Amino acid sequence: MRPTPIPFAKQAYQRDLSFAPEQILRNLIVEKDESGSDPETVMLLQRPGLELRATLAGPVQALYAPNNALTGFPALIAVAAATVYSISGSRATALGTITGTDTRVAVASNFDRIAIVADGCLWLYGASKTSTANTFRQVAIPVGYRAVDVTTLDGYFIVAMSDGTFYWLVPSDDDFTGTVNALHFATAEAQPDSLVGVEIWNGNILFFGSASIEVWQTTGNADQPFQRTPSQGFQRGCLSRDTVQQIDNSVMWVGEDAKVYRVAGVPQKVSTIGIDERLKKRAGSPSAWTFSYSGHLYYVLNIPGQGSFAYDLSTQVWSEFASEGNVTWRPHVGASNADTVICGDSTTGALWTVTDAYTDAGTLIRRTTNASVAIVGAPVRNDDFAIDFGASGPCTLNLRWADADEFLSDQAWQPLDAPAGASVVTLRRLGQARAPYRQFEIEITDPVGVRISGARIGDVWR
After folding, report:
1. What is the DSSP-derived secondary structure letter of residue 223?
2. CB neighbours of 372 closer than 8 A, spacing ≥ 6?
3. Which tens digit of pLDDT belongs to each residue from 407-458?
């Protein structure tokens, strides 16, 4: 009797209309096995862990790395509980305060100033026309307008307004005395929708509306520095500003149709039907952030009430990232400072560093995946279940199983001891399996690094 391979879930996927078990890939990522032994083999590895870096008054509303060479300029900016901080190591220095209770705020910087949009208002940090000292101050925008986002291009700050208008702040001009010049404006008006956000893409400006996206470019004309590119533009809107993220020379966002898109030429849908279904079930506005770690580039989408799902651009696979005791992964904003990734908590003031740690700042990481095998005809013996496994230290691997007429969550876990290093962990005598399928689930909570390469039934025949 030949062993039957049982492939584990290679993607987090749930589809109500399929009436099939949810495919679980929680706190695990997919990586191709490049050892050369089998070009088709993939491994499930643990997602990165977290280490505590600093604690602010929470929640954290933004993290931003200006990457500015100017002496004395902050290397990392954090906004938490309406206070703006400069972060150096684990030390936080308050720069000023903003108004409002927005869950996320928008931050951008040019060579010598930082701009923040929150609660419909605009703030600046940096020197002014009257002082060379860096100060934090609110900048008045024209009456009747509400700022929704900010970005920067060629030194200009571009401030998007909810009605479709946008203003620009001229570098080192009188705009920085405390008032936006009311004459420095244009309107993204190819479609009559409101503006949701703005982002830079390959030297162009993308204005995200609720039903369309306009592409603008620089002109070199000081009086009218930006113009719409008539041959470009997308009949695709944006559901939430905070899903718009630059990543790998492209931009990703959640469209007005609750699907995830990536644009590097024209918008391409990258969400699965399972992710689309979760977005439709959302309990609030989705948001996203991006980070690169250990050869993987992630777009992490937080869907309120559903969870956090990370799209890995290197494998084009969606994994679920979860924090113990939370529906979503606790980080919801992030920034990279040199080769270090810093992220901030959605409910507390915790700032973390993304690391190879096997816990989230001391809290266990529950790594879970599952597999199914089809059963045709009469019940069959399930003599054993063998798992190709690797661990950085001794640990317990928990296994449970259920047939289609049983609830997997009602079944007791069977603990299996696994040694450090590579091994095959086997459980025998699992009883008869009934049609149409038997589902297996694995969970590891010990603070060790883990690898799962596959599973089989029929290794041992009796």
Report:
1. S
2. 6, 21, 437, 438, 439, 440
3. 999 999 999 999 999 999 999 989 999 999 999 999 999 999 999 998 988 8
d(CA 148, CA 208): 11
For domain 49-361, the CATH architecture is 7 Propeller (2.130)
* Confidence band of 233 (pLDDT split at 50, 70, 90): confident
Q: For all residues of the chain together, what is the average pLDDT? A: 91
d(CA 380, CA 1): 13
Instruction: Pinpoint the residues of the chain covered by CATH 2.130.10.10.
Output: 49-361
The dihedral built from the CA positions of residue 89, 93, 98 and 101, taken in this order, carries a sign that is positive
Host H or E run for residue 359: strand 359-360
The pLDDT of residue 462: 41
Superfamily of domain 4-47+366-457: Galactose-binding domain-like (2.60.120.260)
Of the candidates 292, 290, 335, 295, the residue with the CA atom closest to the CA atom of residue 308 = 290
Q: What is the pLDDT of residue 58?
A: 86
Integer Cα distance of 75 and 65 in angstroms: 6
Q: Please, where in the chain does CATH 2.60.120.260 lie?
A: 4-47+366-457
Euclidean distance between CA atoms 406 and 189, whole angstroms: 56
379: its two tokens: 């019940």
CA-based radius of gyration for the chain: 25
Residues 6+ apart with CB under 8 A from 71: none
